[in-house]
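User: Hello, can you help with two protein structures?

Assistant: Certainly.
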Amino acid sequence: MKNHHNFWLTLCCFLFTYCGLSSVVNAQDQDPYANQYELIKLAQPVQRKDGKVEVVEFFLYTCPHCHTFEAHLVPWVETKPDYIHFENVPAVFNDEWIPLAKLHYTAEALGKLKEFHAIILKAIHEDKRTLQAVPDFIKLFSEHGVTKEEFEKNYNSFFVDMKVRNAKLMTKSYGITGVPAVVVQGKYRLLSSKTNGYDNLLKVVDGLAEREYQALSKAPPATTTTTSTTTTQSSSVTTETKNTEATESTAPE
């Protein structure tokens, strides 16, 4: 009787394990990107009027990993599908990061974001310049044709203030705790620690963006205009070690 009982117990354990493994395999078959992203729970999908899929990179100008990622990101941006809308958002974890966020959006207000985004990264990481305060910013921009008056007017503008406030809200609501991080359509948060490097991260972005675009194409037209909001999702970031080098910077305390 005892052996009979052990037989059925062993069989049940085997079936339970088999079913569990089968579920994992089936889930991975259904989602080839499983375990390579984090879902932003309860976040509402982005609703763009142009029907494009939104891809956002969260970064810090002082982050060495963001500077490294840029070399992978720029070619991707230049060749991405037309249905992807991409933008950089400076992570604002606390008020300490507001000046550099304002610097980013000052460049946007001037209509020179692409140019100055590269200039700022080069100044900090290659030229080893200190960019911490407004006088530092004015000096850098003046070297590239922007007057002190023009810089200050835009740096202190309502436009820049609103953009920084939105960046701070997005940093929190998308659960950003380390950079660089990429969010696809307000749903999927990607870090290179989960994708085995930057190149594969961008491949996963392509796959998820295509998935979202196909879903948007099949969706019936909206009958009313709604405002999308996001909710906060707390997340802890892991640090990838690849060839002994980390690929993300965690948020400062």
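That covers the first. Now for the second protein you mentioned:
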Amino acid sequence: MMPKPKFSIPLSCQVLYNNILFGLKTLEEYLDFWQLLPLKDLPIRKENPMRIHIIACRVFSRELSYYAAQSRHTVDITWLPQGLHDTPDRLRTMLRQTLEDLYRQKEQRMLKHWPDVIALGYGLCSNGVIGVESRDIPLVVPRTDDCIAQFLGSQKRYMELFQDYNGTYWLNNGWIESAFVPSRENLETMRQEYADMYGEENAEFLMEQDMLWARNYSACGFITSPVYHDPAYPELARRMAADNGWKYAEFAGDTRMLRMLTDGTWNEEEFCICPPYHRLEAAYDGSKIRAVPISAEEKAI
């Protein structure tokens, strides 16, 4: 194992990092270097403009697009379909496929510029991010249960509201625009589709089965956004709550974590900064996600 460096490498010294890493002859030496390096010294050039590639759920479309356009960094975004948290294995597969596609574009010289960091616009999302691996650049992931915490501004605030508003079905601009929202109109459309395919009697039965989940909720919470407001959206949420016999409440959205994602101002408390050649694992100490090294043997497979 290499001796631990007796110097601190500034974040801005990307060339120095590259020279050091270029001199490491074997994968074992490379992995040893990253294990010895403090997270605060990762080669993420926060002081200078960098390139950030975000792989995100489409539910973040308005907010991430807005803040990416304002960021001093160059931010590219690959969007994945909303709802993959319902099938975490599929989410994990699509994240891996998207990463593979980026590296394929790099190998084929289709990408003119390679990112300094890849970030995920996801939280744990039913453990769908667990098992995803970084390669030669860091991977950054918010330490949240899901997107709702990010729309509310922090996992801490999400947990505080969860205590008082347990059983809340959350909605916001992104969910209404990209997800299936069980409004009266959407449910009637679904029922008609079932009737056309299976007949009226079967349609009623299928609708009852599809709506069993609604019994787990007692309120609808609408999260506002400083980026975009459409009066029709909270009104839709209010009607949906009334149709289901739920209470209704509105909460001011806080986009600080989404701004941090595009601005590169990640901290270790709220973001898992996964070094190169590490794997995301679930953490059960409140930090949600941790990064563990990939062994040389695993990398060789």
